[in-house]
Design goal:
The chain is α+β, with helices and mostly antiparallel strands. It is built from three helices and eight strands. Helix 1 runs antiparallel to helix 2.
Length: 219
Amino acid sequence: MSLRVYDFRTDIANVLVTPQIRCRFLKMEVGQFNTGHTHDLGHEIFLVLQGRAEFEVDGQRATLGPGQFCIALADQYHTVRNVGDVEVIMFLSVTPHVQPTHTFWNEDGTRMPPRFMPAGSYDEPADRATPTAELAGRHAAAAAALAESAAAAGAVQRAEADRYLQAVEAGDERSAAAARERMWDALSEVFSRTMALGGAWNAFAARTADPAPADRSGA
């Protein structure tokens, strides 16, 4: 990915969409508000760049102006309203970005069914060429790869944690550092495969909300 500079006055869209993070500039007209929701996995950060916005997060309210930000953690119900007399422009990020990204609730506090969104909802082009069966296969393969990596990493963590503790007990800092590095090497692969699974799942989930033309015909 090449270096690109974004401007909140012109780039009102999702500017980065990956399993690790989704971020965007968002504009809200005077009086506009969003539907309250939670995120099953993601923490969301809101940074106000222009205007004044009232945020409700987990039952508490605050009005933010330019240069101020707030955070809605995973599972914290939140909503936002433009309470000023000019457009609100904010930068927001959600980490991680794994569908279904938003959870909505009924008035009686019961959870609504998951909503899977098409790629266009995140300003991404829809993949209308790859067969659904292939997307499902990629997801299943990514899940299997993660399971294999996690099992291998689990064995490494147990063995190297013992070596680390033994080295610390013996005052052997070099061996302790080496054990810790081996633990991280195995663990970093698990995180990488987790993100790969998130990407494969998001592609499949987007297809379920925006089928390819061939899938609509039953082919």
